[in-house]
Amino acid sequence: MVDYTFLEYTTYDDGAIVRIRLNRPKARNAQNRGLLVELDDAFLRAEADDTCKVVILAANGPIFSSGHDVGSKLALQEYANHPTTTINGGTRAGAELRYLQEWHYFFQNTLRWRNLRKITVAQVHGSAYSAGLMLAWACDLIVGSDDARFADVVGTRLGMCGLEYFAHPWELGARRTKELMLTGDSIDVHEAHRIGMVAKVFPRAELEDNTLAFARRIAKVPTVAALLIKESVNQTQDNQGFFNSLNSCFTLPQPLALGRDPRRRHACRQARGWRRRLARCVADRARRKDHRASSEPSVTACGRQSQVGNVVLIK
Fold first, then answer.
1. How many CB atoms are closer than 10 A to CB 308?
2. How far is CA 24 from CA 36, 129, 167, 204, 309, in A?
3. What is the C-alpha R_g of the chain?
4. Bridge partner list, 119
């Protein structure tokens, strides 16, 4: 049995159904590097298990996910010393460092989950902001509670053209994508259902049980038939340009993104020793933690101020 720090992994029906839960509720399930690495491991673990037929991706806490964590104490510590910062381009400098790290841990991760050899269902409650959409869109089906909302505020708050996994036009339509990204507005679960992004809408109190029942219906389909259905639809999208579009859009924000984060901009100017500087920054922030915790709310992807642990900025 694998023990996860940021996830819960539960099996049902003798392993036929797996439910993976994001488990950073105090941080609104912000996606730090450790969580993403564990999530990839959990998905691949379910994929390798021949008894598993359906994977549910859910979350603990008040919302599904507030996006990528790029500013909490934990995230800064991981930038300084997480094992993945020494591989996959983590020792390179400047734009190359950022490009390779995001290609591996944001872009390729999501593509791999989209093409998982199992049927996947995103169980969304509360809100899915920005990179929270990436997790939901990587799944074959999305079910949502009646209070679920969806938004990408990367354009309006961070000045970028969108997420690393730019599936917006395919999920929302071209003009709706432009509107939502230019305004930062959200859509509720009922509109998401109307446009075909969400498959089922359940009352919040019944979401857990109804999602499991939905997964059990899917698990009755022969595995080879389920996989062929999934692959037929995915290949149809790819032949229409989905995969090439994702690749093209991933490269667009990279040159611009170098200037939006002062910490990373400094790392580009002077790459040597940047992890030591980040470690000192983390230590300094820790000394001020008690004073700030009672007086300084964090900024979340939805743009409202609220106390969410030590999360400083979510994208």
1. 24
2. 12, 15, 25, 20, 10
3. 19
4. 54
All domains of the chain in start order, with CATH:
7-306 (3.90.226.10)
Residue 268: CB atoms within 10 Å: 17
Digit-coded pLDDT (tens) for 187-210: 999 999 999 999 999 999 999 999
CA 108 to chain centre: 12
Residue 49 per-residue DSSP state: -
Helices (H), 64-167: 73-81, 94-102, 109-114, 131-137, 154-158
Per-residue tokens: 49: 């298990």
3-state secondary structure (DSSP) of residue 144: strand
CB-CB contact of 63 with 127 (8 Å): yes
β-pair partners for 144: 124, 201
Please state the pTM of the whole predicted model: 0.82
Pairing of strands 200-202, 141-145: parallel
**β partners of residue 206:** none
The type of residue at 67 is: G
CA distance linking residue 207 with residue 224, whole number of Å: 28
Spell out the alpha helix ranges (H) of 103-222. 109-114, 131-137, 154-158, 168-172, 174-183, 189-194, 207-219
Residue 229 host element (H or E):
helix 223-239
Q: What is the residue-wise DSSP string for 240-299?
A: TTHHHHHHHHHHTHHHHHTTS-HHHHHHHH--TTHHHHHHHHHHHHHHTHHHHHTT--EE
Residue 252's pLDDT is what?
Answer: 76
